[in-house]
Amino acid sequence: MQPAQVSDRDPGASGPAPGEGDVDPLVAAAVGGDETAFAALVGRHERELHVHCYRILGSYEEAEDMVQETFLRAWRKRDSFSGGPLFRAWLYRIATNACLDALRRSARRVPVAAGHDEIPWLQPYPDRLLDQVASDDDEPDAAVVTRETIELALIAALQVLPPRQRVALIARDLLGWSAADTASLLGASVAATNSALQRARATMQARLPSGRLEWRTAEATEAERDLLARFIESHERGDTAAALAMVRDDIRITMPPHPMVYQGIDELQTLLAQAFGEDQPGEWRLVPTRANRQPTAASYLRQWDDTEFRAFKFDVLRIEGGTVAEITTFGAELFPAFGLPTTLGRS
After folding, report:
1. What is the pTM of this model?
2. In CATH terms, is domain 222-344 a member of 3.40.50.10090?
3. Is 339 left (phi over 0), alpha (psi -120 to 50) or beta?
4. Long-range contacts made by residues 190-196, C-beta under 8 angstroms, separation at least 24?
5. Hey, which residues does 296 pair with through a beta bridge?
6. Is 184 exposed, middle or buried (0-12, 13-18, 19+ CB in 10 A)?
7. Whether the predicted pLDDT of 178 surpasses 50
8. How far apart are CA 26 and CA 286, in angstroms?
9. For position 210, what pLDDT does the model report?
């Protein structure tokens, strides 16, 4: 089913999204054609809109494109905004519409399952940028992005939903919007929106880990930091036994965009033999970071004939019961987005 077109007109008739307040002089100036005011205003909402588009699309880079498209559409259609206190909701509606348009144009196959191996476009999201949401007094309506609203398992599961169900669930359950505001966002009736939401919730309940609603934190725990440190140490030493000792027997490893899936200790041991064995490609150096509110190791590889360590991959860890339950490995394309250099010296 193709996503229906959503109007970008001012949704003022439905009432404000949570937290919308009085008329902002900056909004009035921007709607009036002041380019400086417009740039300042959209910059205020840029990060939360990027996270919104990322949740819909599952791709950090595609979300960047959609945010830019949102701002272009907003500038062209600024006369359609009434000038009331709903500018943030109006931007969300334009961003949603841009994402639905992109999904309609794409040849993307809706995955049968929510496994990361079935979602080749899946990318990680840097925690350092998630921290920018709700960190500014100019964005009092933006909520802190906690793990249960951004974890990779959730983003992957969202990609299984039809686009309008996906948006309904994001708005109601992740952003905390009311039924009326969500219906306005989708340009649909409250009844139709609630129906889409219920179908989306049923699908998500069947696909997500049962304990995910306990992940109500944006901070790493001491246990997570310790496990990540041991993960990094074992990989830098090439210590297969230590690396295997910290994972579950049913460990699962995926590598988007590649379709490979490695399941269990034996298959992980085969992978580690390639990385640490006699034919290992070079020397490893790992740096701790976080993606999607999960502990993450950024790996650099110095090939034997090279003088520098070069960005190689991210390993995003899902930890359960003090052990690593899943590793999702991504390429090095987003090292700059994580604030990481692409090369390291040998010292």
Report:
1. 0.88
2. no
3. left
4. 193/168, 196/164, 196/165, 196/168
5. 289, 316
6. buried
7. yes
8. 45
9. 62
Strands (E), the chain: 247-255, 258-263, 282-291, 294-303, 309-320, 323-330, 343-344
In this prediction, residue 208 carries a pLDDT of 80
Distance from C-alpha of 3 to C-alpha of 95, rounded to nearest angstrom? 14
Give the Å distances, CA to CA, from 210 to 53, 170, 207, 311, 313.
25, 19, 9, 35, 29
pLDDT tens digits, one per residue of 58-97:
999 999 999 999 999 999 998 888 766 688 889 999 999 9
When pLDDT is cut at 50, 70 and 90, the band that residue 142 belongs to is low
Are 12-214 and 222-344 equal in CATH topology? no
Q: Where are the domains of the chain?
A: 12-214, 222-344
Question: Residue 11: which residues within 8 A CB-CB, separation 6 or more?
Answer: 86, 89, 90, 93, 181, 184, 185
Domain 12-214 = CATH 3.40.50.300: no
Which residues share a beta bridge with 317?
Answer: 327
Tokens of 161: 């939903």
Full DSSP string of 179-242: HHHHHHHHTS-HHHHHHHHHHHHHHHHHHS-TTGGG---SS--HHHHHHHHHHHHHHHHT-HHH
Strand pairing category for 309-320 and 323-330: antiparallel
